[in-house]
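Need fresh eyes. Consider my entry:
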Amino acid sequence: MALRSLIVPVLMVLAAAGSGARLHAAEATPTQTQGSGRAVSVTAARSTTFTETILITGSLIARQEVLVSPQIEGFRISEVLAEEGDRVKAGQVLARLSDDTLKAQLAQLEANLVRGEAAIAQANSRIAEAEANKKQAEAAFKRAQELIASGTTSRSVFEEREAAARTAAAAVTLAKDGLRVAGAEKTQIEAQIRESKLRLSYADIIAPADGIISRRTAKVGALVSAVSDPLFRIIANGEIELDADVPEIYLPRISVGQTARIEVGGLKTREGKVRLISPEVDPATRLGKVRIFIGEDEQLRIGSFARGIIDTGTTKALSVPLSAVLTRDGAATVKVVKDGRIETRKVTVGMRSGGQVEIMDGLRDGELVVVRSGMLLRDGDAVRPVIDKGTSVSEAG
């Protein structure tokens, strides 16, 4: 009886332990009981929406830069009225040149004009006098003709009056020629005055367009020259754009009007639009130029480095994590877990976005692939797949 009483409690303890083990096995997840090999993290290939992006880099430049240079040479700058960073309007005076010489030249020409007008008045007086003499000489010659016909005058008197009439007629012609010369001289002086006034107006260096002054080289006392550096550089209307280099293989995917995100160091991302695509590719670098218009932005500085991200299109396709793809000798492969064993599968990859890669061929929706392609796994190896939720397509998408 004592031995039996000892056996019963032992059997009850063993029974309880057995039922606990069965309960623990029942609560185990399928991924913990599948297969008998090493555990590997896997994820299922799933359909994902891809946005193809192109990253470009370049510098910020003025959409249109206006160069302000002097239109007359040999004069010194007497005043500088604008500084770098100033916003200016078209027609605003930026600097002035010393104009004393130009004013003296204009005054001299205006005096010459007065003399020219006086010369015209004198020429008109000479014409009136010559025409009066001509009439008088013609009348005397007519009377001489009548007298010579009647025989009451001599031949010498007739010839004298004939010569006088011709001389008077020539004097009228000469006076009229003098008037034309005086008129031409006046016209020439008037043209010189207009030119002098124009040159005098050039003494004011004005802004040809609205914008922001990005650079000033004008200094008081400097002698200006049309062949030297511009006195001012203006960002027309303050508009800025990104001048970026793009590999030639991406140029066909970019079109005018596409939206781009512009990233400049230390500033928030801005939006721009593709304005221009260069028709030329540099044969040495194989890069083409793309201009992305940003617009007026006081925080941006021309010359700054910037990056642009252009979304060229979206598509829905099968995808796996980028880490699941192994590329060697130009061929891409993934490790597929099928029936608890490893199978190496060649795949055709496409776009990449957000850590995912498009699988164009070689996989079916839902197939399990090893998350990290670098693991030492061979075809036929028995594995125990464990879903890696951190990299699953369903959660990532």
